[in-house]
Write a structure and sequence with these properties.
2 domains, six-stranded parallel β-sheet
Length: about 325
């Protein structure tokens, strides 16, 4: 029997090494290869010469994925002309600017968003809110969440006490989300409870005096060990049109090492954190403080919630759980 030739799937991204491509596509590279689909990530740079190279790779592909970015209308037409199959993978609320710029929309962003949706043969969305944005623009989207790899076995044991360690992971672009929770952190200092925040990022946040901050540089192969040295995680978010489209990677990373999370009740985080079971959801500074104090003061509660968090991620938010569904969807889309 003749073995079918491998099919080439090209993913266009402005950040080929970034977390979106890493968790939404590269994580499934092995599973796709087993189905005869070769994954290639190609940068979509600002320079014209770099885009010419990207368009050349597009012409060789059996299908092309535009990974969570808006293309200029002319670029959308150029990609569409060169590929038999076009998929738009939506991981951010692209009709809106980010929170630092007011989470506002513009006519041009909405226009480019609609053009890309209408040019695509299929749309994947990282959560239900993003799927609703696509539907409002006239296209249905299949929801495929951002996921993490979860090692087999039990979670690493908590690090020695004292003090308990509160963890956060992100980048300098998302540090303002952590800095919004200075009120409850200051309240913990005022209560006299010992604790230490550990921030896994590329820059230190601005925290109140009296907090012994530990900053661990993020690395591709070191973030999991860095988070294993915390006792509980924090995932604060403001509630706006941009953050409702976030896909909750920080929450999943902390839960995947078996740590409970205190998270803002915003967007997909309300699905990822089961209140009172895998962590606590909060909408006010007071609720954030109550959740943190409950976990700081009760080691048994932390362990019970951490075990439940690890199980929930492994069951519902892991590469292993979603690989068969994503591969089947890509195969069906390629035809």
């Amino acid at each position: 029997m003749r073995v079918p030739s491998p099919r080439l799937l090209v993913v266009l991204s402005s950040d080929p090494e970034g977390p979106v491509v890493r968790h939404r596509w590269r994580a499934f590279e092995t599973a796709l290869a087993e189905a005869g689909i070769v994954l290639e990530v190609v940068g979509w740079p600002k320079e014209i010469e770099g885009r010419r190279h990207a368009l050349h790779r597009v012409e060789t592909a059996d299908g092309v994925v535009v990974s969570s970015r808006l293309l200029a209308v002319g670029d959308t037409r150029a990609v569409r002309r060169r590929t038999p199959r076009l998929l738009f993978d939506l991981d951010d609320a692209l009709p809106y600017r980010d929170s630092a710029r007011g989470a506002t929309s513009t006519w041009n962003r909405r226009r480019r968003f609609r053009r890309l949706l209408r040019a695509a043969d299929g749309v994947f969305a990282g959560n239900a809110y993003l799927a609703e944005l696509a539907l409002a623009a006239g296209c249905e989207a299949a929801v495929f969440p951002t996921v993490v790899e979860v090692p087999r076995g039990e979670a690493a044991a908590e690090p020695p006490l004292p003090p308990p360690v509160l963890g956060w992971i992100g980048t300098r672009a998302t540090l303002p989300y952590l800095e919004t929770e200075l009120v409850p952190l200051s309240a913990i200092v005022a209560s006299g409870r010992p604790f230490r925040p550990r921030v896994v990022a590329d820059r230190a946040p601005q925290l109140p005096p009296g907090i012994a901050l530990e900053v661990v540089p993020w690395t591709l192969h070191g973030w999991r060990d860095a988070l294993s040295a915390i006792h509980l995680g924090l995932a604060p978010l403001p509630d706006d049109s941009w953050t409702r489209g976030k896909c909750g990677l920080k929450v999943l990373q902390m839960m995947s090492v078996g740590r409970p999370v205190v998270a803002s009740a915003v967007g997909v985080q309300t699905d990822q954190v089961e209140h009172g079971v895998t962590g606590f959801l909060a909408t006010t500074h007071e609720e954030f403080l109550d959740g943190m104090l409950s976990l700081l003061d009760d080691a048994a509660l932390r362990r019970r919630m951490g075990e439940a968090a690890l199980d929930a991620v492994r069951r519902s938010w892991s590469v292993e759980a979603w690989a068969p569904r994503l591969v089947a969807a890509v195969e069906g889309w390629l035809g």
